[in-house]
Design brief:
heterodimer, A: mainly alpha, about 80% helix, B: mainly alpha, two-stranded antiparallel sheet, 16 helices, globular, disordered N terminus
């Protein structure tokens, strides 16, 4: 069991890793964005279509999941002296994590509904450059979000083991990633809504 | 996320965990080095086949027909020549020049140099190697699919690379495997870079401030930042290319394209878009290959010159400037692509500017050598060789950086000579220097110095004989990427091509000395002490090879920078980084 001194002296490598991951993912989406802009300007074959309405709902879902994940930590600062999580608190935190996880899955389900909606209108991956980018960006974001779901499961696992410092580290890393996923979705959504 | 200490809890490890799926950065580093050894041998054999054909285009190469159905009867067709060129370039750039100096040596040495027990994420580290391995296997598989490997070059220019098998042999399955392989490779490099950055930021031992970090660690750190940004752009580019190939999208394929008498079912794509995305990665990739060499040279030179590196802070400033500028110059690969000629000028300026930090770094090395009593070890010789070939290759870069001159030289052997010197041979010399320098630490035995010196001298002469004449060929108008020069007006270049071929075979044969030395020393070499080169950085404070947890249960505390040579220390003319003795000013002055 780690004491509070150890918590302070050991750097949070997981969180550092997530920050670096955020830089990477941002760069990838910057590349997709510049490709989109160049491709749209290259030829007049860009077909505009309305983004599926379910995406508005999805945006609310993913933002709500960010809030529920924030509430999982009780919303306040953590007590650095705490060694073992009390059982009641662990149960409460896990509940919020599962709620976040549920919202994440709901979001992915919504994305699939959006895809089906478009494909039923004959808008497919290869039908026009705009739809290519629509599927590409939503799929890329969805895959990264799946990684975030894995992270949340790991946090729940850590909380269940009730080591306060380990749970806190996992939570701080996974929640940073999750909030970034929410922000990234807002970016993708605005980009698609404006350009497509 | 992985626990950085999880690998040290288990004293008894299974065979698989210890040697195959190891979490130990030292084992992973050696795995990378072994992989790149296989890759470099493959790449070199491919270059011999190309050279033989260029020298004697009508002669059949014995046994080639039996190995490769695409070269029936041992005759290399123009298409097969391009396949060889593509695979040679791809293997060398990705699986040798990126894998060995950065992933290989970086993995082994970086945690030791900063006083860490392992990388920040050992599981990611293991995955990173095995993902690289899979990428290599997928790439090699292109040799064994119907119609053979792709022929669109290591740059895979669209639409040639995007339209599928209509574009020629190897453009079907072969090209698809190429794209998949490179996409997988990107993932491996991103995992690796993430690990390097997090390790350097978070796991430095007590007293190891950024200012006290060894130069090689600085270089690996900056390289990983470059790699993180570069590969996170190449990965999307590969995905777009793959979708164009297999899913019917039109990112890169223009309208009305007729290939092999067939109208391609795509429209509106932008071939230039691929070039922009590719070179936004591709130019920084050049620095991913060469910057570790910068660090390695700067780490070894003071130890063999017994003098501190001149201008250590300026040197690190140069690395940072190069890293930054490397993202502003990609368009200089595209002067001939048909992009707006004004943008050529825009890209030309930073290309000329980036030579300034590179030149300053070179001058710092030469200044370090000035007045030094150099210990002529093999590693020292390869450092000198590195400076020589880097300058030779860098100088021709001045010409190519100017659009007006590049328009004449771009499609010629001048460019081949240029990038082989500055990126290929220079980086290889960095790898050789690192091998001779760190071999005792990695395997606990010394390499044979006499064989090493012969290896250096013959290789040094050999590479100049190969690549210097290429500049002349290019100036005289000898185009590149042609499989033979049998047409009347190009026949005059054939004797020189034969000379280059002989030099290439000779230089390749010389590498057998290196291989022999490498394998023999691994088992029979003289047993190495902790610090055979009297160097200052932390990897020399632990046993050779280091124990599983690097420092045998203790973590070193750092009191000095890595550059304290030429002083009156307690062990000699240097002060170890973890020695608590007081700091001294270098007593050796330049005059």
């Amino acid at each position: 069991m780690m004491n509070s001194m150890a918590i302070e002296s050991r750097p949070e490598t997981a969180r550092t890793g997530v920050w670096i991951g955020i830089a990477t993912i941002s760069m990838s989406f910057a590349a997709y964005t510049s490709a989109l802009i160049v491709r749209q300007g290259a030829n007049p074959d860009w077909v505009h279509f309305k983004v599926p309405p379910v995406l508005y709902f999805n945006t609310l879902v993913v933002l709500a999941s960010s809030v529920t994940l924030y509430l999982a930590a009780g919303g306040g600062p953590q007590d650095p002296q705490l060694v073992e999580l009390p059982a009641t608190r662990a149960r409460r935190e896990i509940k919020w994590i599962y709620l976040t996880l549920g919202l994440g899955l709901l979001f992915l389900l919504g994305q699939i509904i959006a895809w089906r909606d478009l494909s039923s209108q004959g808008i497919t991956l290869a039908s026009s450059p705009s739809s290519s980018f629509f599927y590409l960006l939503t799929a890329a974001h969805g895959l990264h979000l799946l990684g975030g779901l894995g992270g949340l499961l790991f946090v729940a696992h850590r909380i269940a083991r009730r080591s306060a410092s380990q749970a806190l580290r996992a939570y701080r890393a996974a929640s940073l990633y999750w909030h970034f996923m929410a922000a990234l979705w807002v970016y993708v959504f605005v980009l698609l809504a404006v350009r497509i | 996320m992985s626990n950085p200490h999880s690998s040290h809890d288990v004293p008894q490890q299974s065979f698989l965990r210890k040697y195959v799926f190891s979490l130990d950065h030292k084992v992973i580093g050696r795995q990378y080095l072994d992989l790149s050894l296989v890759a470099v041998t493959t790449g070199m054999i491919l270059s011999w086949l190309m050279r033989l054909h260029l020298g004697w285009p009508t002669k059949a190469i014995p046994f080639l027909g039996a190995i490769s159905p695409e070269a029936a009867g041992g005759i290399i067709t123009p298409e097969y020549y391009l396949s060889l060129m593509t695979m040679h370039g791809t293997i060398m750039v990705f699986f040798v020049l990126t894998t060995a100096p950065f992933a290989g040596f970086g993995n082994f040495i970086l945690p030791l140099q900063i006083g860490a027990e392992d990388m920040a994420f050992p599981r990611f580290n293991m995955m990173s190697f095995w993902v690289t391995f899979v990428a290599f296997v997928v790439l090699l598989a292109a040799f064994f699919v119907p119609e053979g490997p792709p022929l669109s070059g290591w740059t895979a220019y669209a639409p040639l690379s995007a339209v599928g098998k209509d574009a020629g042999p190897g453009q079907g399955w072969g090209q698809t495997l190429w794209v998949i392989s490179i996409a997988i490779f990107c993932i491996a490099q991103l995992l690796g870079s993430l690990n390097f950055i997090a390790t350097t930021l978070d796991l430095r031992t007590k007293g190891m401030t950024l200012a006290r970090m060894p130069f090689s660690t600085w270089a690996w750190f900056i390289t990983s930042v470059i790699g993180l940004i570069a590969f996170s752009v190449l990965l999307p580019a590969c995905i777009l290319l793959l979708l164009d190939r297999v899913a019917g999208t039109s990112f890169f394929i223009p309208s009305g394209l007729v290939i092999s008498d067939r109208l391609q079912p795509h429209s509106g794509g932008s071939p230039l878009l691929w070039q922009h995305l590719f070179w936004f990665f591709g130019h920084p990739e050049v620095y991913i290959a060469i910057l570790p060499g910068f660090g390695i040279i700067s780490q070894i030179l003071p130890a063999v010159a017994r003098k501190p590196l001149l201008g250590p802070r300026v040197f690190i400033g140069c690395l940072i400037a190069i890293a930054f500028l490397s993202y502003t110059v990609w368009g200089h690969h595209m002067f001939m692509s048909g992009m707006n000629p004004f943008s050529a000028t825009v890209f030309s300026v930073p290309t000329l500017i980036i030579t300034i930090p590179a030149a300053i770094a070179t001058l710092l090395w030469i200044g370090t050598l000035y007045g030094a009593r150099l210990r002529f070890t093999t590693a020292a010789l390869f450092c000198l060789g590195f400076i020589s070939v880097f300058v030779s290759g860098g100088l021709s870069g001045f010409f190519l950086a100017q659009p007006a001159i590049d328009s004449y030289l771009h499609g010629t052997y001048f460019v081949v000579g240029h990038f082989h010197f500055v990126m290929g041979v220079a980086a290889m010399f960095g790898i050789f220097a690192a091998t001779y320098f760190w071999f005792p630490k990695i395997y606990g035995r010394m390499m044979n110095e006499t064989l090493g010196k012969w290896h250096f001298i013959l290789t040094f002469v050999g590479v100049y004989c190969i690549f210097m004449p290429m500049h002349y060929l290019g100036l005289s108008g000898n185009v590149r990427r042609y499989s033979s020069f049998t047409v009347d007006y190009m026949k005059g270049s054939v004797p020189l091509h034969r000379f280059i071929t002989v030099a290439a075979l000779f230089t390749g044969a010389v590498q057998l000395i290196f291989f022999y030395n490498l394998f023999r020393s691994r088992f029979r070499g003289q047993v190495a002490t902790e610090n055979p080169w009297e160097a200052t950085s932390l990897e020399w404070t632990t046993s050779s090879p280091p124990p599983h947890d690097n420092f045998g249960g203790r973590l070193p505390v750092v009191y000095h920078g890595p550059n304290e040579y030429g002083v009156a220390g307690k062990d000699g003319d240097y002060i170890m980084q973890d020695s608590p003795e007081p700091e001294q000013r270098a007593s050796v002055s330049i005059a």
